Amino acid sequence: MAEKKEEQIDFIWEGIDKQRNKTKGEISAKSETIARTDLRRMGVRVIKIKPKPKPLFGAKVQKITPADIAVFARQLATMLEAGVPLVQSFDIIGKGHENASMSEMLLSIKTDIEGGDTLAQALRKKNLYFDDLFCNLVEAGEQAGVLETLLDKIATYKEKTESLKKKIKKAMTYPIAVLVVAFIVTAILLIFVVPVFEDLFQSFGADLPSFTKFVIGLSEWAQQWWWAVLGVIGVTIYVFGYFKKRSRPFNQFLDRTLLRLPVVGMILHKSAIARFARTLSTMSAAGVPLVEALESVAGATGNIIYHDAVMKMREDVSTGQQLQFSMSQVNLFPHMVIQMVAIGEESGSIDAMLDKVADFYEEEVDNLVDNLSSLMEPIIMAILGILVGGLIVAMYLPIFKLGAAVG
C-alpha cells in the first residue's frame, strides 16, 4: 500500500535576499524544514518563518464525504464511457466541483497521472478517501482495459452502499430522537414549570396528593442536581466513544446487542447481508479472486459480528472449502442466501446471483425502515403525552381536590 501523501502547509516568512534587502512572502511546503530549504535555494536568508494562521471567520473547509466519492465515481465513469480522456475528465470534474477540498484533491490526482502514475497508483496516494476495494477494482480495470466498465460497477456499488447507510442512519435516529425529546421536555417542565405550581400549593396550606408530592420532590431534585445529570450524560458519551474506538470486545458486545433488538436488529442483519452480497458481487464481476475479495467484503459489512464471520469464511475458502458450505457454518446467513450462492457457484454466475440477493435485501431494509418510521411516530406522541400529561395531572390534582372541597 502506498504511503499517505503529506498535505502542503502554507507558511509566511521574512528574510534577506541576495541584494541584502528585507523581503517577505508566502510559501507552501510539506514542513518548515523543506520551506527553509526551498527559500535558501531561492537565495533568501530566512529570519522568521511560521505557519500561516487560519482566518477566524473564514470560509469553513468542506470535508470530503463518502457521498462525494460516490458522485465522483459516477461522473468519471460517465466521462470515460463518452470517450473523454482520463486527464481531461479529472480536469473537468475537478474544476466544476462545488466542494473546494474535493476539487483540490481531484486536481492533485490529475497532476499525479500527468506525472506518469496509473489511476490506481494516484488513488492509493489518497487512501484516506479511496479504500483498497476501490483501488483494487480500478487496477483490475486498467490491467484488463475495461476501466470505464469497472468504474461503472464501482459507481453503482458506492451509490447503493451510501443509500443503504442513509437508511440505517434514519432507522437508528428515531429511537434516539424519542429519548432526547422526552428528556428535554421533562427537564423543562420539572425545572421551570413545576416550581411555579409548588409556590401556589404552599399558599393553600393543604395536604397534597401523593402523586403531586412525588413530582414536586422530583422537581426539587432536578433543580438541585441538574449539573450532575448533565455531567453523567457527558461522561457516559465520552466513555462510550472511547471504548467504541479502542475496544474490540466492547464493539463485539455492542454489535451483538444491537442485532438482538426487535426491528432495529432485523434492519442491521439485512443491511449487513446486503452489503456482503453487493461487495462480493462487485469484486467477483471484476475478476478478483474469492479469497482476496472476502477480506474487503468483511470490512464492508459494517458489523464486527459479520466481519469476524466473513474472515472465518475466508480461512475456510482458502483451505479449499466451497463458499456455500462455509456460509452455512457461521449461522448468520439465511437459507435463501446460501442457496443462491450455491447456484451461483455451480453455474459460474456467482456475481449475478449475489447481485439479486443484494437487490432483495436492500429493498427489505427500505421497507423495514419505512415501517419503523411509521411505528415510531405514534410511539413518540404516546411517550410525550404520558410524560407531559402525567406532570400536568400531578399539578392540577390539588386544584381539583380544592374545588371539590369548596363545592
TrEMBL record:
GO cellular component terms given for this protein: plasma membrane
**What main location does UniProt list?**
membrane
Q: Which domain of life is it from?
A: Bacteria
Question: What stretches pass through the bilayer?
Answer: 174-197, 225-243, 379-399
Stored Gene3D superfamilies: Type II secretion system (T2SS), domain F
| Compartments, record wording | Cell inner membrane
The UniProt entry lists membrane topology as: Multi-pass membrane protein
Q: What InterPro entries does this protein's entry cite?
A: GspF/PilC, T2SS_GspF/T4SS_PilC_CS, T2SS_GspF_dom, T2SS_GspF_sf
**Biological process per Gene Ontology, one example term:** protein secretion by the type II secretion system
> Where do the Type II secretion system protein GspF domain residues begin and end?
72-195, 276-398
Q: Which UniProt keywords apply?
A: Cell inner membrane, Cell membrane, Membrane, Transmembrane, Transmembrane helix, Transport
Q: Does Thylakoid show up as a keyword for this record?
A: no
The record's section on Pfam families has:
T2SSF (PF00482)
Protein family according to the UniProt entry:
Belongs to the GSP F family.
Name used for this protein in its record: Type II secretion system F family protein
Q: Which organism is it from?
A: Methylomarinum roseum
Q: What is the lineage of its organism?
A: Bacteria, Pseudomonadati, Pseudomonadota, Gammaproteobacteria, Methylococcales
